[in-house]
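Help needed: design a sequence for this.
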């Protein structure tokens, strides 16, 4: 068999069209110091607070799950929560931009207090909505050297979210992905370097918050070193407090110092922080009140991870779990499984002294303060007209290309093989695994020199692979592309 050079190129083919770089905003973080109020803000918060019944005040602490693709029965159920209970907000999941805007406008028209609308949009609204650009995952963004691009990305995500009626993004993920077998964080993290995670998390957060969208750092106190998906079970993290301080907690400290407005607490069991057997951190007072709020000094919105996840739902029934999350110190309960029951259980906890009236009232006022600072004291509906073109702009497309291009990383370059020179002396084969037909990348290679193209499907039989290997013996330079990989190849 002849010796040949064999190179694997893992890349996202990106354009070379320049993207203009807006200046970083110097606007003051609107979500810092929620305990300090201007006279106008205090007047609005007080007027709304005193207009609500005790039950309606409690309901401001709850956020229900909403969809724009589930039909009239689902929409009626959401309307009942809004009209009868005056819930605080909604988190939107799957659907379409136009329908979502129409629903949000209608739901807001039925709300006595403007609704705080959130989305779990880690790589932009395209994570949830059809027909919206998919930006790169955070792990791809973690490879970008120019952190200012992450700010621009955050600003564009904020623009798209606001255009679809969203005020709060449950992003960025600032878990340090120090376990390569992590089944739930993985590509959602900026990577395994704590400083890179913190820097990029701050830039993503600033891009959103300085452009009018509340950011949420997650999943406190750090979900990166787990081998269990908290959607399916309760992960256990057995690191020492010293280890947690030096790694998992580091990005959260930096995010708090930089003024992040919200932090999401994960469903994790961490004996070094709370020795209660089987207790999720979402329901732990030592984790939320003592560590997050008192020790780290966080005074923004502490929000639970979704309460339908089995990391908490398998251990506590609806209502009980919600109350325990509030007893632990959370300010906002996301994806509550049964809000009417939860309100009833909160009232019991207030009567029993497990919850303090003054403390709970302060949290309700904090939610109202965030609504004011998001401009919800003067709610203006978004129009569904032209929403698809408004989301799929040329600038968004070019930014997407630039992010992909800047993330391409040269891992190794033995003998300075790249850039490829002396094309006339090389017999070149371009092989793509995972694509049945020649790809755009292969056709681009042919614009430079003679290149023979070969494709092998991901499920090709061994005999076909062996025939290809025999054929490749006649080449002295091979470019191998891997296409159509899954999120966990």
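Sure. Designed sequence:
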């Amino acid at each position: 068999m002849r010796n040949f050079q064999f190179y694997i190129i893992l890349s996202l083919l990106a354009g070379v069209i320049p993207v203009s770089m807006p200046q970083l905003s110097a606007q003051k973080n609107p979500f810092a110091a929620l305990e300090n109020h201007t006279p106008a803000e205090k007047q609005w918060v007080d007027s709304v607070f005193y207009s609500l019944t005790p039950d309606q005040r409690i309901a401001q602490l709850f956020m229900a799950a909403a969809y724009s693709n589930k039909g009239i029965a689902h929409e009626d159920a959401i309307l009942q929560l809004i009209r009868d209970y005056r819930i605080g907000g909604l988190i939107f999941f799957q659907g379409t931009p136009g329908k979502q805007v129409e629903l949000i406008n209608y739901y807001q028209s039925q709300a006595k207090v403007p609704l705080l609308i959130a989305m779990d949009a880690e790589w932009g609204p395209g994570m949830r909505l059809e027909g919206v650009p998919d930006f790169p995952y955070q792990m791809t963004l973690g490879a970008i050297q120019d952190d200012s691009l992450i700010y621009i990305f955050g600003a564009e995500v904020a623009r798209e979210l606001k255009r679809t009626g969203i005020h709060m993004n449950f992003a960025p993920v600032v878990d340090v992905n120090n376990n390569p077998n992590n089944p739930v964080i993985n590509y959602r993290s900026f990577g395994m370097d704590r400083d890179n995670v913190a820097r990029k998390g701050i830039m993503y957060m600033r891009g959103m918050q300085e452009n009018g969208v509340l950011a949420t750092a997650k999943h406190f106190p750090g979900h990166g070193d787990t081998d269990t998906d908290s959607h399916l079970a309760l992960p256990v993290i057995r690191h020492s407090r010293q280890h947690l301080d030096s790694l998992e907690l580091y990005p959260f400290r930096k995010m708090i110092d930089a003024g992040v407005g919200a932090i999401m607490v994960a469903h994790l069991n961490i004996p070094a922080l709370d020795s209660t057997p089987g207790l999720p951190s979402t329901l732990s007072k030592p984790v939320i009140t003592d560590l997050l709020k008192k020790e780290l000094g966080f005074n923004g919105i502490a929000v639970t991870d979704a309460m339908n996840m089995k990391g908490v739902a398998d251990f506590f029934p609806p209502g009980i779990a919600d109350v325990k999350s509030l007893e632990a110190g959370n300010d906002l309960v996301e994806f509550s499984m049964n809000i009417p029951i939860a309100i009833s259980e909160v009232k019991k906890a207030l009567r029993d002294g497990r919850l303090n009236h003054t403390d709970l009232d302060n949290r309700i006022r904090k939610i109202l303060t965030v609504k004011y600072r998001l401009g919800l004291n003067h709610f203006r509906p978004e129009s569904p007209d032209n929403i698809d073109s408004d989301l799929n702009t040329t600038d968004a497309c070019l930014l997407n290309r630039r992010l992909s291009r800047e993330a391409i990383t040269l891992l190794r370059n033995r003998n300075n093989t790249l850039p490829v020179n002396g094309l006339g002396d090389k017999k070149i084969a371009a092989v793509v695994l995972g694509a049945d037909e020649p790809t755009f990348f292969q056709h681009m290679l042919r614009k430079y020199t003679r290149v023979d193209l070969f494709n092998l499907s991901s499920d090709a039989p061994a005999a076909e692979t062996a025939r290809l290997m025999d054929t490749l013996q006649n080449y002295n330079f091979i470019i191998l592309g891997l296409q159509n990989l899954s999120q966990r190849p």
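The CA atoms of residues 375 and 439 lie 47 Å apart.
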